[in-house]
Amino acid sequence: MATPTKVSAVEEIASDFKDSTAAVLTEYRGLSVAQLKELRRSLGQDTKYSVVKNTLTGIAAKEAGIDAFDGQLSGPTAIAFIKGDAVAAAKSLTDFAKANPQLIIKTGLFEGKALDASGVAELAALESREFQLARVAGVLKAPMSALARTMDALRLKLEEEGGAAAAPAADEAPAAAEEAPAAEAATEE
Question: HAMAP family in the record, alphabetically (predicted)?
Answer without folding.
Answer: Ribosomal_uL10 (MF_00362)
